[in-house]
Amino acid sequence: MIVAKQRQFSYQSGYARQQTYQPRERIKLKKSRLIKISCFLSLFICLGMAIALVSHYNRIIAANKQVIQHERHLNTLYEEKEHISIQIAQLSALKRIETIAINEIGMYYPREGREKSLVATTN
Amino acid sequence: MSKEILPTITLKKRLIFLFFVISLSMVMLIGRLAWIQLVKAEDLQQEARDQWNRGITVSALRGTIYDRNGRILAGSATAETVVAIPRQVKEPEETARALAPVLEITQERLMEILTQDRHLVYVKRKVDDEIAHQVRTLDLSGIDFAKESKRFYPNENLASHILGFVGIDEGLAGLEFYYENELKGADGRIIYQADARGVQMPQGIQQYLPSTPGLEMVLTLDETIQFIVERELSRALIQYDAESALAIAVNPQTGEVLALAKKPDYDPNRYMDYPDTSWQITPIFATFEPGSTFKLMTLAASIEEGQYNQNEGFFCPGHMTVAGRNIRCWTSSRGGHGSINFLEVVQGSCNPGFITMGQRLGKDAMIKYLHAFGFGSRTGIDLPGEGLGILFTPEQMGPVELATTSFGQGVSVTPIQQVMAVAAMANGGNLLKPYIVKEFRDEFGNVVKRNEPEIIRQVVSPETSEQVKWIMETVVKEGSGLNAYIEGYRIAGKTGTAQKVGDGRYLVGKNIMSFIGFVPADDPEILIIVAVDEPKRGSMWASQIAAPVFRNMMVDILNYMDIPQQMTEEPEIRTVRVPDMTQMTVDEASARVHNEGLILKIVGEGDVIVRQTPTPGAVVPIQTNILVYVGGETLGDSQGVLVPDLRGKTLREAGEILSWMGLKLYPVGTGVAVKQEPDPNSKVPEGSTVTVEFKSSVD
């Protein structure tokens, strides 16, 4: 009897087994992992995007800094140019040239030359 | 049972009350948050930005001023400004003590600056590089530097009256003042984010707002002509020991000012070292009696009205009585011009002749032409402080006033008014508006604004203009302007000698000598007025003082402007026989050579001429200097000779004078004598050497 019962149990049809089949824990486990993975992935993507954004922002700032430095440098060069222009103007001032011509080189105006030759007899 | 229910109800009530309190608090908080976030957000954000944003001002460079050929007359460059951050100054007293001698500020004042409750304070602005270096070497905590724009005038005194100068932040005189808005530009800023201590945040946002430089200004002025004019004025100032000398050069066809100068002047780089009276633009500001140069207006009006006949005879007895008042001619001491025609009236600058012309014109026509020529109103030149001049009103002008006005007395005009009036006579009759700024350009060289010649009105016809030019040319060729004559060129001009007025009367011995002329006479390219104020040496005649100054200027300017000689054949050297002037007074001798083309150089003190060189009868080229010695007692005796005053004399003249006295010359330098050893009037043995220091006008 006991055997029969056992046999009966073991001869349970596939359909019945199919009927009683419950894909319980294995499938549940898969979903949770996917969620975890997708969460992790989203987090990773977000982090990546954040890093990319920050790095991009950083690069913009660095570029901005460089641009400003170049602009300041340009401004300095422009100021230097102005300074040099003034120095050139100072050095090419007619008064300076005439003073050097008269006092250092010994040049004189033609009318002064005439006067000089006339007074040569007085000394 | 009731004992259990009562606490529960109380508890519930309390809970409800607490709930409402918390809810209300929450609502209030949310409301406050909404108020902050929605209503006040922008203001608070701005305040926050202001707190963390710091800015450095990038000062705009002031627009450069160029002459007509693009040469820099005024430019800007950065200079260091010493600033202090009071919170960072550790020992204010010590810092003030260290800075005081370098910055030339008192310690007390520095203490005031360094202890101010401000983030940043100026200590001294726009210091020289050398001072900035010295301050930097001190290495003081809380002392820093900022860069600012500083004005430089590379030619120093050249055109100082025109250019003016800039104070700390704005133009204070001349063109710098007049065109402040165009020249100043707009400051820029560098904005950065800083922490509470003011330190720049490494990743903070930076912003650069560039400065906009001021507009570049191109003048009608020519640096070389300006230089020549100033050099000759300086020479005249030394030579004649004058109070001042001024000149204006314009293009009479356009009204462009080519040069405008007054001596003494100032260096705009150090304007504070000079008295503020020296900053005045005398050529456009000062008014004075024009004297004989004003006769040109009477002449032009008479020609225009058809009342002038150059061949008509006239007799000048040396004076003329008008409404009971005796008005003298400058020839009164020698009995007047005598019998002459109206061309000679102009050539000889005869006062009675011009009074007659004025009387024929009448009061109304005279006033009409004076106003038409621009007298009594501003010319509109683009410089600050232009004078107006003084004319008689129709009610004030009686016969005497009409008579004096016709030969340039009793009226007061500015030099620029005279220049523009004569320019109208020279250019075909158009009164022009003078201008000194040709154009403005932006930083990229694009012309933003341009000034063009502007005709105010037609005053006289081209025919009248032609006749006036021709008559003025004869004045230089044969009349009182002979000392302005230049071989090969057609020069038109007129001399003017006017007594200065003070305390309601004419001041004896205080004169203004002027000469106004233009070249070439037929198609003028340049017109110059020269005025020498209160010369103390030499003859008191414009033909002797102002005309030679005009000539000296013109010789170099004509060369520079490359104006060709008009007389193609070899110009003959014009000569003149030297008259005997011994025993004449200086005034008589001056009158004698007034129209001869000779220049008197007076030596000694006194009034009567005792010796002259070249000797009477000698034939010399025109414009030769005649040395006349006055005061016989100074010629010397057995005990020695008196050393003459050689100041203002050239090397040749000094040598000549000393050789008369039996003295020797030891010259030092070139130019005009400014100092001598032994001093004038000291007695030295014959044969002694006199050391004379000569100075060039450029020194």
Structure overview:
The complex is a heterodimer of chains A (123) and B (699). Chain A is mostly helical and 123 residues long. Helix content of chain A is 85%, strand content 0%. Chain A is built from 5 helices and no strands. Chain A has helices at residues 2-10, 14-20, 25-91, 94-104, 110-119. The longest helix of chain A is centred in the middle third of the chain and has 67 residues, at 25-91. The model of chain A is unreliable at 113-123 (pLDDT under 50). Helix content of chain B is 33%, strand content 26%. Chain B contains 20 helices and 33 strands. The termini of chain B are far apart. In chain B, strand 2 (65-66) and strand 3 (72-84) form a beta hairpin. The mean pLDDT of chain B is 87. Chain B is of the alpha+beta class and 699 residues long. Chain B folds into 3 domains: 55-219, Penicillin-binding protein 2a (Domain 2); 223-561, DD-peptidase/beta-lactamase superfamily (Beta-lactamase, 3-Layer(aba) Sandwich); 575-695, 2-Layer Sandwich (Trypsin Inhibitor V, Chain A), CATH 3.30.10.20. The relative contact order of chain B is 0.08. In chain B, strands 2, 3, 4, 5, 10, 18 and 19 form a 7-stranded mixed beta sheet that branches. Chain B has a 5-stranded antiparallel beta sheet with strand order 12-11-23-22-21, with helices on both faces. Chain B has a 3-stranded antiparallel beta sheet with strand order 1-8-9. The longest helix of chain B has 38 residues, at 2-39. In chain B, helix 11 (295-304) packs across helix 17 (462-478) and helix 13 (351-361) packs across helix 15. The interface between A and B is large, with 37 and 45 residues.
